[in-house]
Amino acid sequence: xxxxxxxxxxxxxxxxxxxxxxxxxxxxxxxxxxxxxxxxxxxxxxxxxxxxxxxxxxxxxxxxxxxxxxxxxxxxxxxxxxxxxxxxxxxxxxxxxxxxxxxxxxxxxxxxxxxxxxxxxxxxxxxxxxxxxxxxxxxxxxxxxxxxxxxxxxxxxxxxxxxxxxxxxxxxxxxxxxxxxxxxxxxxxxxxxxxxxxxxxxxxxxxxxxxxxxxxxxxxxxxxxxxxxxxxxxxxxxxxxxxxxxxxxxxxxxxxxxxxxxxxxxxxxxxxxxxxxxxxxxxxxxxxxxxxxxxxxxxxxxxxxxxxxxxxxxxxxxxxxxxxxxxxxxxxxxxxxxxxxxxxxxxxxxxxxxxxxxxxxxxxxxxxxxxxxxxxxxxxxxxxxxxxxxxxxxxxxx
Length: 398
Known about the structure:
Elements lengths: L1 E5 L7 H14 L2 E7 L4 H7 L6 E10 L2 E7 L21 H7 L3 H6 L4 E5 H7 E8 L6 E9 L17 E7 L7 E7 L4 H5 L4 E8 L23 E6 L5 E11 L5 E9 L2 E6 L6 E9 L19 E5 L5 E8 L5 E8 L4 E4 L4 E2 L1 E9 L2 E9 L6 E9 L3 E5 L1
Antiparallel strand pairs: 1-6, 2-3, 2-6, 3-4, 4-5, 7-13, 8-12, 8-14, 9-11, 9-13, 10-12, 15-23, 16-22, 16-24, 17-21, 17-23, 18-19, 18-20, 18-22
């Protein structure tokens, strides 16, 4: 299970990271590499390091009040020249050399790429740790393979994540706390894709019932960071009892179809499955607020001049209904649905910038009027109205 920890991120607790790696390595549960970032040629020469280069972590020690790591340059030569290197005669004591079974004088004669470095120096000169954990640490596991088509949803999901792949996760901790790791892996299909990876992926976690889709990206329980690594890992500790979550896959500027694997590892029982779309019928129309029809919200006398659409829910029982409005991000939009024959009227509530999703339940068959509007009158421009329902319907401009 791959985990990435950036030493330059304020979100990473370096002391906790050291302890986790120390414990995991000595249990035999993790393999670790650490990589440098971009450093100048002069600094690289002084430090004996290679920029943007990965080193294997062979050992981690807490000894005599020190935190030391033994690294190996895979080139089998070119080593660290700073504190606790083989050239540092001041830091090494005889007791420390014996405790680590380290022959510094022999190391001076034989550059095999292996060296010791103290934790503080490593955090200064290196950028990121890559850890690969033993999956057997978790009793329960589940894997989903799927794809996200290029044309599904907007290119950027900063306003609307309703078309993103979403999964319902139900975790049953019982009387204990649980540990859950969620791993998203994007499939690398071509060599050039790996060499110049421009696809940025992540997973957002939302708390809730898990059965309904999430449409707006704000207020996640755990907000993922979009990175161009093939792997993204997020971790959480559900409390006692049953917890329900939505897992939303997200990508920055999606232009291509992506194939991915979603894995969940847990110390407690859980269930994972896609969030089911209940809507069997969908229709999308284009509208326009013009000088004559940009009436603004219901607070203005011009409200009824807004564009109107006729919706007819055909025969059947009560159905679920979804109304979406997409407009310029400069405009706050809202929508109203009403029926004079049923003395029925519902509004979407607060106006939202650029995108609005309005879900309704138990809508009876019959004829309805839909009015999309901007908050302020006189805001001209095109918009899209999309209606989806769990029953057959007709939709047209009034």
